[in-house]
Amino acid sequence: MNIEGNIKSNLIVLLILLVFLPFSATSQIKQTARFEREHKSNDKEFILVSLKEKGLVLVRDKEKYKEGKQLWEIIRLDTELKEIWSVELYTESRLRIVGYEYKDDLVYLLYREGEHEASDLTLYTIDIDSKDVRKHVIKQELTFKVTHFSALSHTIALGGYVTNEPAILLYHLENEVTKLVPGFFVSDTELLDLRVNTNNTFNVLIAVRNAKHRKKLILKTFDAQGALLIEDEMEIDSKKAILSGICSTLINDELFIAGTWTEGNSKQASGIYTSLIDPFSDQVINFYDFGQFDHFLDYQNPKRVAKLKQRSQQAGKAGEIPDFKTYAIPMRLEEQPEGFALLTEVYLPSTSLNSYPYWNNFSSPYYNGYSPYGYNPFMNRYYSAPYQYNSQPSGETKMLYASLIVFDTQGKKNYDYGIKLEDKKVGGLEQTADFMFYKENFALAFKKDKEVKFISGHPEETVEKDTLTSELSYDETVRNDSDDNSAIRLWYQNVFYSWGYQSIRDRSPHAESPTRYVFYINKIEVR
How far apart are CA 247 and CA 82, in angstroms? Predict the structure, then answer.
């Protein structure tokens, strides 16, 4: 065969390999866009609001005043991180931001006056196309401690507590009427989750902890006017207790709940529970101890992992609960036609931090410590939970491990993966990692210092590890990247965005200043 024939044969073989190689062998993780803004040491941090496929909105307190009003800067970026518009928002000077949301082309910014929980709430909506800004004042007749904030069409739902009893408040934007949803105000209960469904209804998940009665998990679904549509009560084994819970959003036409559970009154979790909601029959709650997962314990040394899994098997055969427990909290539940994926993070609380974040945790999310970049109280949390699990920290929490568990459409465990978080330190208790679960492919990532670390792959195939650093111009290098004030989040489909604050050294001989300080966002695609 001549040289030309050999080349053609090799090209054919190469094309066949490219077509039939699995995702995990061909996946690539690349930075495809970058946004920068000069940052000075006294500048406040940006709050990032994801618009999914419509871009990002950045919100920042400018700490400037005009006629007694406080100036906020709002910037919209497209998915290539190009600026589309910016607007200035003037608020009353004593307003502090306590939550934000995005739905149906509206960005919602929720403020409260001062530190007192009985003060009025102020809501601003910004139309991402017209830039139209509207203000709503939500009068408070009760001391309402807001823990959850979600937007429906023309309505917002606020979850929280009135005198330590759960309450749900609806505010209608068009007629500016506030309504308390009936059926709450029950002692010894905890509001675990408030989440809006794709059909403009919303779910409320409650744990009943009254020791005189059977422990229960209650799921209620309401329409946008607060009318009860579904109520399902699930009794819990007296030996077990529910610590946390997250609801799905009816993408699969099935309501799925997942969270952590423990034995007795322990503050540490024994495992993960799941259930598909069925108000017309007694459904099963699946209780998995951590030793039943393939990789949940991988942050331990291999010998200890083997021992813990053996104990788990022995306990299961004997109908007992294994004695292993750890501090773990679910951070995000993703719903796809292929099933459900749950991100749970393992952490080690500081001795000065409230290590039980699930019960009546109402402290201000603002941090009293010092950071050269300032502090963003919403950096690493769900935008729909104003206080998430943050108590006011006087110490640091070590984030140890991020677990990604995928369940099938029936709610049964399918497979799981995990990534060590390398003892990343955070103030309070904050979401550290994030994941992509898209067309059965997955990627799990976290950011530490200058690097974003990934694992990615496909079920039953080899998992790839990857490390990504910020791509700059040829003559520039990153001197420092703020680990305390940076993170990575899923943006949409197979796209993440990471952000932080960097000092950058310009080595070119004609640079006007050899070092510059920037706030940056990197777009990262998993291909």
Answer: 34
The tens digit of pLDDT for each residue in 44-66 reads 999 999 999 999 999 999 999 98
pLDDT for res 398: 92
Nearest of 6, 27, 10, 82 to residue 444 by alpha carbon: 27
What is the signed CA dihedral for 57, 58, 62, 67, rounded to 10 degrees? 10
> Which phi-psi region, left, alpha or beta, contains residue 482 (left: φ > 0; alpha: ψ -120 to 50)?
beta
CA torsion through residues 461, 465, 469, 473, sign: negative
Measuring CA to CA, which residue among 135, 148, 140, 136 is closest to residue 120?
Answer: 140
362: DSSP letter: -
Q: What order do you get walking across the sheet with 396-407 strand by strand?
A: 328-336, 339-348, 396-407, 413-427
DSSP 176: T
Q: What is the pLDDT of residue 6?
A: 53
Q: Is residue 99 part of a domain?
A: yes
Q: Which residues make Cβ contacts (< 8 Å) with residue 416, sequence separation at least 6?
A: 293, 294, 295, 296, 403, 404, 405, 406
Is residue 358 included in any domain, yes or no? no
Higher-pLDDT residue of 200, 383: 200
Decide: 209 and 190 in contact? Cβ < 8 Å.
yes
Q: How far apart are CA 98 and CA 449, in angstroms?
A: 27
**pLDDT-based confidence at residue 327 (cuts at 50, 70, 90):** very high
Q: What are 152-208's pLDDT values in tens digits?
A: 999 999 999 998 899 999 999 999 999 999 988 888 889 999 999 999 999 999 998
Q: CA-to-CA distance for 155 and 149, rounded, in angstroms?
A: 11
The amino acid occupying position 300 is Q
Q: Tell how strand 240-242 and strand 155-162 pair up.
A: unpaired
Q: Confirm whether 127 is domain-assigned.
A: yes
* pLDDT value of position 184: 87
Task: Let me know if residue 133 belongs to a domain.
Answer: yes
Count of structural domains, the chain: 1
> What is the domain range of residue 113?
43-141
Distance CA 172, CA 187 (A): 28
Across 172-186, 249-263, 368-382, 452-466, least confident range: 368-382
Q: CATH number of the domain at 104, please.
A: 2.40.128
Q: Which residues pair with 481 in a beta bridge?
A: 502
